[in-house]
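TA notes, week 10

Several of you asked for a full example with nothing omitted. So below is the full record: structure tokens for the whole chain, then the designed sequence directly under it. When grading your own attempts, check the secondary structure regions first.
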């Protein structure tokens, strides 16, 4: 790739062919006619606690089942000596279980417990870890002691520290440990080192170096990967977990705010949804809850888009309509949605505004969007959505409401949903498509004929799924080609988010995924770089780009779009060559005076191996490469290697 114009022209002259020889395509950009505005919400993120995305992932807690609330109260723990699970006089009413450590009964014996973490406890050499525990002395003694150890995967303790418990009341004790080693599979061990009993609850270990150094914080490398995408919107908390397998296990945002120790545990449906990827220890602690989601959106500069349950459990898992809340009993669900808006935007004197303020954010989060229902369908959804829309419009007329067209990219459910969305006047419709390469390539013109007067589109979950399930270059290239259609239709497509976002290499249930990680490091997929090339080059206005007067949506296996960035005064052209052959392209910028376009840059994503992917071991297998590109008389003339996505950026003088 990267044969620049000068080279190409010389070659053309030598061969005695004109620049317009049959191998070369001409694309025309109407450079002096900026069209539809590109929304600031374009190219965002969709977060769900799937694949250990939250607990065991983004949420930096290293201890699994820290509050002993898993249904098997000691899951994730090994105990030795005398350890008893109790619930009398608990520290936290919503998380009542705790452990009592008592003397082992012989001076040579020991009492204690150890935690296995999430596929191990990942520790880095010289990094500090913040250990904390709520403890009390049930016998009313003056002082008892225990010892904390980080133990490496060879069972050698590598750091130890003694902690004294000094009160018969529940109190938080904290220390900082520095790890002398790196190990992805360490354990946390606790030894009772004195004779009397100690009660313990909420045993926690966090890296000190979290995103922005926060306690109860997020994994820094993972947030950095998110921030580097410059996401326009941040949709949370899911996904199917919004719905729950039954309504009891739906995502209830009110359980996710307030002191972290008292946020009740919820099941995570991804622990059992795919029995071939079964993870019986997958629960939601809600340590990463709605406050943290709003804060994260703010810090990475994206519009928050919370999704609320619309009174329906997962429709895939429940054919019986009785699984859902009857339409005339939706009040508390609707109230939850209204309260959520108050939590985000309400004055500190309001009930929920005060909760937000007490958590550390008196200023409103300035919420503008809310989604009602995840991936619902049919009449049963519409009759529930309707009262939500009425109530939200009445209380908060400026909030934009996102409905959904269901799980399919086309077909009965989809065809029924869109007219209903128009009737109900949803502001945006969330479309989902997990489809193979062919589908993505065939859908580049998908939005060209959408109704411009109806609701706007939120491509809320999409990913190209090759048969082998890999995040390979082939899938990424097809996404890049498809996304030229999102860009070209910026007047109707207002938001787009790839899905799912995160996956732990040892704990995934669903793939492909945008960012993979283990306990120590992370890797951005090739698909991530496609998203990034779009989000970092999104421009402010669409420009018409045509080949033979038609949008470029697959002719000769080429896909293309163009934008103008009024802030940078730059023209940006994206071209995907999905063919097996190199293709010459001349891009003519119409309406720009001679000499007004500077030389610019070309950033390419290319691999000769369609199955190539970025892995933790080889993170840079396919990454964007930048080079300079030369302009002559407002014409960009390039050769695009087979299977290449290229982004050209040219500044206007
Ligand atoms: O992204 C994985 C799942 O796909 C989401 O939870 C759901 O909305 C869709 O079916």
């Amino acid at each position: 790739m990267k044969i620049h114009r000068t080279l190409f022209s010389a070659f053309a002259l030598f061969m005695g062919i004109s620049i317009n020889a049959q191998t070369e395509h001409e694309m025309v950009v109407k450079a002096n006619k900026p069209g539809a505005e590109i929304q600031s919400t374009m190219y965002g993120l969709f977060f769900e606690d799937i694949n250990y995305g939250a607990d065991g992932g983004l949420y930096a807690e290293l201890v699994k089942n820290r509050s002993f609330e898993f249904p098997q109260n000691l899951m994730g723990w090994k105990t030795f000596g005398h350890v008893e699970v109790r619930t009398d006089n608990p520290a936290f009413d919503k998380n009542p279980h705790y452990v009592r450590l008592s003397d082992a009964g012989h001076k040579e014996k020991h009492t204690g417990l150890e935690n296995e973490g999430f596929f191990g406890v990942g520790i880095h050499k010289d990094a500090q870890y913040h250990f904390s525990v709520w403890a009390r002395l049930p016998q009313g003694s003056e002082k008892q002691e225990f010892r904390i150890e980080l133990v490496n995967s060879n069972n050698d303790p590598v750091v130890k520290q003694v902690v004294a418990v000094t009160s018969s009341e529940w109190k938080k004790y904290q220390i900082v440990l520095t790890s002398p080693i790196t190990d992805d599979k360490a354990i946390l061990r606790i030894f009772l080192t004195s004779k009397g009993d100690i009660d313990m609850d909420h045993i926690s270990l966090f890296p000190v170096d979290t995103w922005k150094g926060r306690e109860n914080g997020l994994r820094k490398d993972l947030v950095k990967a998110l921030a580097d995408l410059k996401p326009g919107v941040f949709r949370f908390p899911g996904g199917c977990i919004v719905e729950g397998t039954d309504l009891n296990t739906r995502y209830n945002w009110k359980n996710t705010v307030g002191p972290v120790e008292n946020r009740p545990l919820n099941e995570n449906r991804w622990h059992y949804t795919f029995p071939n990827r079964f993870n019986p220890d997958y629960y939601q602690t809600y340590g990463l809850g709605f406050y943290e989601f709003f804060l994260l959106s703010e810090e990475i500069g994206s519009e928050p888009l919370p999704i609320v349950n619309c009174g329906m459990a997962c429709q895939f898992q429940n054919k019986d309509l009785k699984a859902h809340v009857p339409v005339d009993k939706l009040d508390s669900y609707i109230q939850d949605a209204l309260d959520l808006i108050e939590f985000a935007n309400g004055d500190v004197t309001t009930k929920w505004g005060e909760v937000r303020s007490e958590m550390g954010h008196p200023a409103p989060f300035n919420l503008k969007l809310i989604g009602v229902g995840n991936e619902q369908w049919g009449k049963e959804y519409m009759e529930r959505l309707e009262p939500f829309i009425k109530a939200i419009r009445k209380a908060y007329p400026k909030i934009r409401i996102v409905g959904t067209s269901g799980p399919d990219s086309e077909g009965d459910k989809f065809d029924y949903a869109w007219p209903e969305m128009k009737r109900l006047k949803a502001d945006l419709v969330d479309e989902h498509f997990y489809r193979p390469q062919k589908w993505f390539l065939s859908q580049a013109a998908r939005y060209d004929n959408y109704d411009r007067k109806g609701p706007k589109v939120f491509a809320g979950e999409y990913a190209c799924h090759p048969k082998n399930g890999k995040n390979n270059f082939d899938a990424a290239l097809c996404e890049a080609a498809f996304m030229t259609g999102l860009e070209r239709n910026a007047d109707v497509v207002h938001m787009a988010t790839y899905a799912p976002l995160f996956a732990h290499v040892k704990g995934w249930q669903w793939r492909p995924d945008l960012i993979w990680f283990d306990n120590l490091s992370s890797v951005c997929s090739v698909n991530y770089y496609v998203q990034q090339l779009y989000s970092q080059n999104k421009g402010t206005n669409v420009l018409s780009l045509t080949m033979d007067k038609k949008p470029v949506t697959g002719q000769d296996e080429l896909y293309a779009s163009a934008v103008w960035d009024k802030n940078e005064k730059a023209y940006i052209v994206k071209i995907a060559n999905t063919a097996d052959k190199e293709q010459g392209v001349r891009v003519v910028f119409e309406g720009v005076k001679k000499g007004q376009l500077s030389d610019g840059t070309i950033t390419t994503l290319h691999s000769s191996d369609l199955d190539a992917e970025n892995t933790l071991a080889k993170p840079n297998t396919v990454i964007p490469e930048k080079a300079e590109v030369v302009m002559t008389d407002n014409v960009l003339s390039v050769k695009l290697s087979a299977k290449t996505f290229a982004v050209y950026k040219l500044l206007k003088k």
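DSSP finds eleven helices and 35 strands in the chain. Use that as a sanity check on your answer.
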